[in-house]
Amino acid sequence: MRADYIRIYKSVHTWTGILAGMALFIAFYAGALTVFKEPLARWASPQSTVSRVPLEAAPALIAGVLKARPDVAKGFSIHLQDTENAPARMGWEVRDSKADDHDESSVRHYSAYLDADGGVRMERSSASGLTYFIDVLHRVVGLPVDSDPNRWIMGVIATLYAVALVSGVIVLLPSLVKDFFALRTGRNLKRMWLDAHNVVGIVSLPFHIVMALSSVVFAYHDGIYDLQDKFMYGGKLESVFQRPGGAEAPGAARDPAAMLAPLELVARTKNLAPNFEPSMLQYQQVTGPRAMVRVWGKDTSAVSPRARGGFVAIDPYTGRIVNTDYLPGKQTTSNLWVSSFFALHMASFGGAAVQWLYFLLGLAGAWLFYSGNLLWIETRRKRADRKTGEPPRQRLDTRLMASATVGVCLGCVCGISLMVVASKWLHGRVGDLNAWLQGIYYLVFFACLAWSFLRGGARAGAHLLWLAAALTFAIPLTSLLGGLFPRTGVWAHTSAALAVDATALAAAAGFAWMAKAAARRIGQGAMDSVWAPRRASASASAAG
User: Fold this and answer.
1) Which helix or strand (DSSP H or E) is residue 480 part of?
2) 178 — pLDDT class (breaks 50, 70, 90)
3) Which of 328, 347, 456, 327 shows the shortest CA–CA distance to 396?
4) Tally: H helices and E strands in the chain
5) Using CA atoms, how far apart are residues 228 and 5, in angstroms rounded to an integer?
6) What integer pLDDT is reported at residue 79 of this predicted model?
7) CB under 8 Å to 148, separation ≥6 — which residues?
8) Which among 17, 52, 78, 256 counts the fewest CB atoms within 10 Å?
9) In whole numbers, what is the pLDDT of the chain averaged over residues?
10) pTM here?
């Protein structure tokens, strides 16, 4: 390929990466954490103080709740697994009628259980919105609300991301065979960072292609459906997704007492799909003529259409299988193609091994965007005067980009870590826990950004890495204190939530190692680097 074409693609790769890099860092770092949303939700939830109703007694619980609260018949859930983030056997949600479907703050959670005398008790439960907000940061690249305009912004960034991928591959093609596994260490740190950037980018290229394309589709799927409806279905697309039978016919309300027991619904599901592990029964419109229950669960040997798994739809009165379009292992070919698209983005296949792979690829992706900005900065730095050896005053754009890169990326890391810690310490102590968690994240994020511009990228990098290490270490420390001193009001779990503490401990050690390296770079690195302390620039200015 001609050298001038390579230069054009290199310029395209550089500027698309710069424009989207910091937002993509937030998306990938938060996205890596959402792979383990369930263990993180369990970590942030206290152990339930009420006894779990045996599944055999669930019909009595359902009947009692629906007698006291007929409106709950519109939708409720029976939790089949005893996990910390499910405070009782039965639960339901109430959403404000005027609220946006993506506004989690408008949702009120309730749970129900049987007391020692067999009486039904209902109470509002304080579900933690920690994992939901981390997912919002992932889906809309750090913006506070998962709304249509913010998703469109994410779509633009994902498009730039795709362009950066294509142009980066084209730039690397002429030297791909020679430089693919080259990692030249030595005094030329820029060369080493470039080699590492290229290797990580090429090795994880299929993963990044899937992420870029699926993100664009997720951002604009409503518009895509509208175009399909207009040009392909003549305005009748909605009818394609309706169940056979047309609209609900009016009739006498059905008696929920006649529904099959949850154990029977689980048994029928297991007969249909032996490898499927049910986790929840989601009842819908149980007093209406088209009552349905979705049996949610996972099958690690098959592709799941959603991050939390898939489901089979059953008539709760007759046990008739209504729909298997979203049941892992039983989907039609067309549905499997669509489900595979979701599964490849959300790691909802292959079990724990694939989840850990996606977690590591997500962190590697965040590093890819961080290192891309560093390479841009180093490429544009001024060199020391060869005669006098005096370091020059660096360009304003490189100093600003260095400060922004450090502040945004490490601000995201510090904000999420403190938010995770606060989800335990503030539980039961504040009125609106979710609002507090979001406020803490953005307070820390903007404080880190301000500190980075105030102190400069070099010094702030070391400071904020130490802060990230301390705040991340506070995650397992909080659990330890909860286990040793329960009266502190925090808690420790001995379940799968322990993986959160172990992972955070490893991450804290990694941030501490990077903080030491950053401090060493300041003390021993080249004085004409953008990453040299500001005194170098000051002395250069004074000498001039």
Assistant:
1) helix 457-484
2) low
3) 456
4) 17, 8
5) 37
6) 95
7) 222
8) 52
9) 85
10) 0.88
CB-CB contact of 406 with 464 (8 Å): yes
The type of residue at 81 is Q
Determine the pLDDT at residue 247: 46
User: 293 by DSSP, 3-state: which?
Assistant: strand
Tokens of 354: 């694939």
Q: Residue 364 to residues 81, 202, 344, 448, 475: CA-CA distances in angstroms?
A: 33, 12, 17, 22, 22
CA-angle at 502, arms to 501 and 508, nearest 5°: 85
Task: Give the pLDDT of residue 52.
Answer: 85
Question: Can you say whether the dihedral through the CA atoms of 264, 267, 272, 275 is positive or negative?
Answer: positive
d(CA 162, CA 17): 10
> Based on C-alpha coordinates, what's the Rg of the chain?
27
| Lowest-confidence pick of 94-98, 178-182, 191-195, 246-250 | 246-250
Cα(412)–Cα(410) distance, integer angstroms:
5
Do the beta carbons of residue 148 and residue 442 sit within 8 Å?
A: no
Residues 165 and 205 sit within 8 Å (Cβ to Cβ):
yes
* Distance between CA atoms of residues 438 and 43, nearest Å: 18
Q: In what order do the strands lie in the sheet with 90-95?
A: 120-125, 107-114, 90-95, 75-79, 277-284, 292-298, 310-314, 321-323
Task: State how far the Cα of 217 lies from the Cα of 102, in Å rounded to an integer.
Answer: 18
Q: Of residues 68 and 128, which shows the higher confidence score? A: 68
Summarize pLDDT for 440-458 with one digit per residue, the tens: 999 999 999 999 999 988 8
Of the candidates 148, 178, 137, 172, the one whose C-alpha atom is nearest the C-alpha of residue 34 is 137
3-state DSSP of 325-357: CCCCCCCCHHHHHHHHHHHHHHCCCCHHHHHHH
Q: How far apart are CA 519 and CA 470, in angstroms?
A: 16
Binning the chain into helix, strand and coil, the percentages to the nearest 5 are 60, 10, 30
Give the residue ranges of DSSP H helices in 173-241.
176-179, 189-203, 205-231, 237-240
Give 328 or 334, the one with higher predicted confidence.
Answer: 328
Residue with tokens 């408008």: 106
Give the phi and the psi of residue 112 in degrees, each rounded to 5: -140, 150
Give Cα 22 distance to the centre of its chain.
16
**Mean of pLDDT values over 489-499:** 86
Instruction: List the single range of 46-60, 329-343, 344-358 with lowest mean pLDDT.
Output: 329-343
The residue type of 301 is: S
Residue 540's pLDDT is what? 35
* Sign of the torsion formed by the C-alpha atoms of 467, 469, 470 and 476: positive
pLDDT at 239 > cutoff 60: no
